[in-house]
Amino acid sequence: MENTTKILAGATCALAVAAVGGCWFYGIYSAGKAFDETAISNFSSVLPAELAARVTKYEGGFFKKTFQVTFEAVGGIQLGTFNGRAYPGLTTKVELTRAADTNFEQGLLRAGVQNFDDRIEVSYTAWDALTSGSQALPSARLTYKIKPFTVVAGGQCSFEAFEFDIETGKTLEVRAQTPGLSCRPVGQPELKLGKFEFSFVSDAAPIAKALNGENSGLSETSLTMKIDSMVSAAARFDGFDFKLDLKPEEGTKTWAETMSFSLKKPASPALYLELGQIGAVDDVSGSVRVTGITEELCEQFAQILLGPSYLHDDLLTLTLMRGIQNDGVVVEFDPLSVSIEGNRATLSGVLRSESTGQGTQPVGRFQFESDESILPPELVADALMQGYVKQEKSKIKSEIVLTPEYGTANGLQLY
Questions:
Q1: What integer pLDDT is reported at residue 227 of this predicted model?
Q2: Which of 11, 113, 219, 353 has the greatest CB tally within 10 Å of its CB?
Q3: For residues 25 and 45, what is the distance between their CA atoms, to the nearest angstrom?
């Protein structure tokens, strides 16, 4: 445990260094049109309070300005020194590359970080930075790149090249990618993560309002994440894809959210106990669409997530059920699917408010279909005997209805 803690401490140090990229972005954004000696010399007034900067070796030419800037985070954490080059114009470009800094380099070595090297590239449109109000973000872009490096402290973690990119304007776009990483603590199994890609795109206007303390509302958003593979002591898989889209519904004040995912070749001790062999699951996938989302519902969810974690599941479920019953929220599953050794089971359906003998309440109507070979023979035989499912050739099927008061399968009451 101590060795693992040391590795995590080293990795945390490296991540703290990465944070300077985002802080620099806010510094450039606030500096405005003229990247001149005055702006550079007053970093303390434009950077976040958690970050301090000291500028030296400034040389201000008309077409090119050079300088050095040293960053320090709150608590005296040294984030190192960069050589800076700025190219002013209608679009100002800034490049920061690592400079020699004994204190920072010694801090990295103490944390076990070896061969760390990064650079920052920033470009922004001066006119946008001056004229954009609460309705928009200026046209700007920041790219942060890290070369491959290692953390050696009671084991070894090898990080491949990492790139982070953020671009603002009418939309806010955030992208990150790495070819992968591997960690092997002493005496413990190796953790390996394959190629990782992340993308987030959102309408910038609500974000600009929020930054100015205004009521922002929801923002049209798309998020995707892809991981080629992962191997660890607890689990492994050969691929994971995730996508989420949030869009306004036409002609209404409500929003729709669609989430889809696919997990290939998952394996874990828990699956081994359930299925009896490693690698039996080919894939798990699903698509869930929620319509009728209101800003009030999102605000309630946000407040719950800020509260105690042990209450999250119960309160989120209760809030969603109230939204379905009272506000017209609808949840569609189209479908949820699992494949085991070439045989597939699916569950599709919808959860919405309906008028029943007990009044208006959430009702789930689902269709279940499975290849017979997936299910345990004794379970199939018992369900067929009781009439909860029906068999069509090699398929097991059932119509399932669930309400707070009762549930049925194939027309027969479950509870």
A1: 97
A2: 113
A3: 14
Q: Which residues contact 27 (CB under 8 A, 6 or more apart)?
A: 43, 46, 47, 53
Which ranges in 98-178 belong to alpha helices (H)? 102-110, 126-131
Cβ proximity of 128 and 204 under 8 Å = no
For residue 378, pLDDT over 50 is answered with yes
DSSP state of 358: T
> CA gyration radius for the chain?
27
User: What integer pLDDT is reported at residue 267 of this predicted model?
Assistant: 87
Q: What is the mean pLDDT of the chain?
A: 83
Output the six-digit token pair for 305: 């997530």
> How many whole angstroms separate alpha carbon 11 and alpha carbon 290?
38
> Which has the closest alpha carbon to 81: 64, 105, 59?
105
Question: pTM above 0.85?
Answer: no
DSSP 240-292: EEEEEEEEEPTTSS-EEEEEEEEEES-B-HHHHHHHSSTT-EEEEEEEEEEEE
CA–CA separation, 264 and 144 (whole Å): 31
Residue 58, Cβ density class (10 Å: 0-12 exposed, 13-18 middle, ≥19 buried): middle
**Does residue 244 contact residue 222 with C-beta atoms inside 8 Å?**
yes
Provide the pLDDT for residue 351.
96
Measured CA to CA, the distance from residue 228 to residue 217 in angstroms comes to: 35
For range 229-254, the mean pLDDT: 92
Neighbours of 4 (CB within 10 A): 16
pLDDT over 80 at 138, yes or no: no
Q: Look up residue 223 and give its two tokens.
A: 């998020």
Does residue 130 register a pLDDT over 60? no
Angle between helices 312-327 and 295-306 (to 10 degrees): 170
Residue of 252, 8, 20 lying closest to 120 (CA atoms): 20
Pair 337, 286: CB distance under 8 Å: yes
How many helices (DSSP H) and strands (DSSP E) are in the chain?
A: 10, 27
Number of residues in the chain = 415
Confidence of residue 272 (pLDDT cuts 50, 70, 90): low
Ranges 44-48, 256-260, 391-395, most confident: 256-260
Phi first, then psi: give them for residue 299, nearest 5 degrees: -65, -40
**Residue 200 φ/ψ, nearest 5 degrees:** -135, 125
Beta strands in 34-180 (DSSP E): 51-60, 65-73, 77-87, 91-98, 113-114, 118-125, 140-146, 149-152, 155-159, 162-168, 171-178
> In terms of Cα–Cα distance, which of 58, 68, 31 is closest to 47?
31
